[in-house]
């Protein structure tokens, strides 16, 4: 079929009906780019749709999910073509805008495939500010469809010179107008998906990013300005009096990175966590505890300082803005040695500054230990046992506080070579990310066993309070969301928490709690008098306290905030101005969102107000730090170590 060129259209008598509008539509540069933008978005949403557990098996729902994207892309194409037909010079401006839209769509599609949710302005801002770290994550994590999207876009750009010879820069808006009309009908008239994960996918990432840019990317909560100076729960007189008493117990806190409740033996999960179960058999086991904010830096502040973290994206906990009395400060004033160990890169998120702010006098990370690197951030967790026990053996006559933070259970769940071989030999499943995650949880449990065995061999276990807990959970796409930062479902928030040792009776707590409740519980177990009003948490040591709403917020705060009270979870999604509830008893998998009651709305209003009070508008000030040599933390600069990898992540 020969196509004769004419200004703005293809002319062929055999092109009848709709094809007379379709082929001329594709002759415009802008239409060509916007069609590709829509195509890559459709591919990413189709993959994300197929991953959601319990999603309706219908192509109709997929058309609903892409309706807003079709409205945006074809609507832009139609408007651009009308402009181009009136002003030929405009083709360069419309083409550039369309190319920007295509690039943004490709980035958003890649993010959707990795994270299971749409890109937001806040997420994009983090990606730009921390590009080296984010690129390491992308290289590690992009699934095959994501690379296909990038390959397709790359091929398009390579073919651009050829396309410029075939396209004359002016097209007919007929097809674009038709698709825009149909998409408008679907977008505005079709009922929204009732599945929570799908309701999020129905939005347009491009529109969400744009609106986030203009409203500052934050939620409706406003910063309180000078928030950051926390009250001291324990007086210096109380510490001095307590330190003069009987021999104080040691304290060991093992923080299990990204470890959700239902992966462990305690939650009936696939990981055989014998050490955690053994510890629970000696003391207090929390069976209904959640993170305040599912992000490690934020959770560490909640765990060790007993205070709400700064309820926003910025890591104020690492700056001089954060002034509080944390557990290391309290025990340090009583003569304790205080050390923090982690298998992850210490350069990630300026961990030395956070550790110093919390009152530790020793810091050891991957750069000091040199375990087998796993992914962009982590290393093998069993490498933590030796430096911890070396610390215990030094000055053994002095009581100590040690915090041990694992990392291998963090995305991308890379297994050490020896573990992979051992799992294959024992015929333990490792095929999927979930399988490997479960094996890595077993490995951190083996490290916990080494810690307890080492203390027992030294005759210290009976005089040591041992705490094991998850800092937050982890999602594997059950509800669409993968990983943890924006995961308000139970897999993202609910974690194990066990306390055993002197002063801790054997019992299980089933009442909802959060990580803020650890510090008052620990202080009571230690026999340290404290001012309850200075801590937002409650002690669960002897019995469950009076029930109260336990609030939470996503790290990307435009994504979620809410609370759990009893068996009811209330969630507010600021980016969509949408609120709903779950009955955790009748619907433990959170598949059926419920409308809010008047009481829910009243409580949610107070929660929103409280979160607004927990935000800061002060400038971030990174102080100079030299306490943890050979770490170097120059004023205003990230902390570095001679062994830190370039770019701040493994593999760069």
Q: Could you describe the 3D structure shown?
A:
The protein is α/β, with parallel strands linked by helices and 652 residues long. It has two domains: 4-214, no CATH class; 236-648, Alkaline Phosphatase, subunit A, CATH 3.40.720. It contains 24 helices and 19 strands. The strands form five sheets. Strands 3, 4, 5, 6, 9, 10, 13, 14 and 15 form a nine-stranded mixed β-sheet that branches. It has a four-stranded antiparallel β-sheet with strand order 16-17-18-19, covered by helices on one side. Strands 1-2 form a two-stranded antiparallel ribbon. Strand 7 and strand 8 (378-379) form a beta hairpin.
Question: Could you provide a short overview of the structure?
Answer:
The protein is α/β, with parallel strands linked by helices and 652 residues long. The protein is built from 24 helices and 19 strands. The strands form 5 sheets. Strands 3, 4, 5, 6, 9, 10, 13, 14 and 15 form a 9-stranded mixed sheet that branches.
Helix and strand topology:
Blueprint (H helix, E strand, L loop, with lengths): L3 E3 L2 E3 L7 H7 L3 H23 L7 H7 L1 H20 L4 H25 L5 H9 L1 H11 L2 H15 L1 H7 L7 H16 L6 H6 L3 H10 L21 H8 L6 E7 L17 H7 L3 E7 L5 H10 L21 H7 L3 E6 L8 H7 L4 E3 L1 H4 L3 E2 L3 E2 L5 H9 L6 E6 L11 H9 L7 H25 L6 E7 L4 E2 L5 E2 L6 H4 E7 L6 E3 L3 E2 L3 H9 L23 E4 L7 E5 L2 E6 L4 E6 L14 H16 L39
Parallel strand pairs: 3-9, 3-10, 4-14, 4-15, 5-6, 5-9
Antiparallel strand pairs: 1-2, 4-13, 7-8, 10-13, 11-12, 16-17, 17-18, 18-19
Helix pairs in contact: 2-4, 2-5, 2-8, 4-5, 4-10, 5-8, 6-7, 19-21
């Amino acid at each position: 079929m020969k196509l004769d060129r004419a200004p703005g259209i293809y002319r062929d008598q055999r092109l009848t009906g709709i094809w007379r509008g379709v082929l001329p539509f594709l002759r415009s540069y802008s239409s060509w780019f916007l069609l590709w933008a829509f195509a890559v978005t459709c591919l990413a949403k189709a993959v994300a749709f197929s991953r959601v557990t319990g999603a309706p098996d219908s192509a109709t729902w997929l058309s609903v999910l892409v309706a807003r994207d079709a409205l945006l892309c074809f609507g832009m194409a139609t408007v651009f073509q009308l402009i181009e037909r009136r002003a030929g010079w405009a083709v360069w401006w419309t083409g550039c805008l369309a190319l920007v839209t295509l690039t943004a769509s490709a980035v958003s599609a890649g993010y959707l495939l990795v994270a299971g949710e749409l890109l937001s302005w806040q997420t994009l801002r983090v990606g730009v500010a921390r590009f080296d770290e984010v690129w390491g994550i992308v290289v590690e994590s992009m699934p095959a469809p994501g690379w296909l999207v990038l390959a397709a876009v790359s091929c398009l750009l390579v073919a651009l010179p050829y396309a410029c010879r075939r396209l004359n820069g002016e097209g007919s808006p007929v097809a674009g107008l038709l698709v825009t009309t149909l998409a408008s009908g679907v977008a505005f008239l079709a009922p929204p998906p009732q599945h929570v994960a799908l309701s999020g996918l129905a939005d347009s990432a491009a529109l969400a990013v744009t609106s986030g840019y203009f409203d500052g990317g934050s939620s409706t909560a406003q910063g309180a300005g000078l928030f950051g100076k926390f009250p001291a729960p324990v007086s210096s007189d109380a510490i001095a009096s307590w330190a003069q008493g009987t021999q104080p117990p040691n304290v060991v806190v093992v923080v299990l990175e990204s470890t959700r409740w239902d992966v462990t033996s305690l939650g009936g999960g696939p990981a055989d966590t014998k050490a955690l179960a053994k510890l629970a058999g000696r003391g207090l086991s929390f069976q209904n505890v959640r993170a305040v904010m599912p992000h490690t830096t934020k959770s560490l502040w909640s765990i060790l300082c007993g205070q709400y973290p700064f309820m926003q994206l910025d890591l104020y906990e690492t700056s001089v803005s954060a002034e509080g009395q944390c557990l290391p400060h309290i025990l340090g004033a009583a003569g304790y040695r205080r050390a923090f160990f982690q298998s992850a890169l210490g350069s990630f998120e300026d961990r030395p500054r956070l550790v110093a702010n919390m009152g530790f006098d020793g810091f050891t990370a991957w750069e000091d230990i040199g375990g087998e690197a796993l992914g962009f951030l982590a290393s093998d967790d069993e490498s933590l046992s030796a430096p911890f026990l070396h610390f215990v053996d030094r000055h053994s006559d002095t009581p100590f506080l040690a915090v041990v933070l694992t990392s291998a259970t963090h995305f991308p769940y890379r297994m050490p070579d020896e573990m992979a071989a051992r799992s294959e030999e024992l015929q333990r499943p490792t095929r999927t990310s979930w399988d490997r995650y479960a094996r890595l949880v077993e490995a951190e449990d083996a490290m916990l066993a080494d810690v307890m065995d080492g203390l027992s061999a030294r005759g210290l276990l009976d005089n040591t309070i041992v705490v094991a807990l998850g800092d937050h959970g982890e999602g594997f796409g059950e509800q669409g969301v993968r990983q943890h930062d924006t995961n308000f479902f139970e897999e993202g928030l609910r974690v194990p928490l066990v306390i055993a040792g002197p002063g801790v009776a054997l019992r299980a707590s089933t009442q909802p709690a959060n990580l803020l409740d650890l510090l008052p519980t620990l202080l009571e177990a230690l026999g340290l008098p404290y001012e309850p009003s200075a801590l937002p948490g409650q002690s669960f040591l002897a019995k469950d306290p009076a029930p109260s709403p336990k609030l939470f917020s996503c790290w990307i705060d435009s994504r979620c905030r809410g609370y759990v009270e009893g068996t009811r979870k209330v969630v507010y999604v600021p980016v969509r101005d949408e609120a709903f509830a779950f009955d955790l008893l009748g619907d433990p998998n959170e598949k059926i969102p419920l409308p809010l009651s008047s009481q829910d709305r009243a409580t949610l209003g107070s929660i929103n107000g409280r979160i607004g009070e927990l935000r800061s508008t002060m400038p971030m000030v990174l102080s100079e730090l030299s306490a943890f040599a050979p770490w170097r933390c120059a004023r205003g600069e990230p902390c570095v170590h001679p062994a830190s990898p370039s770019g701040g992540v493994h593999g760069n």
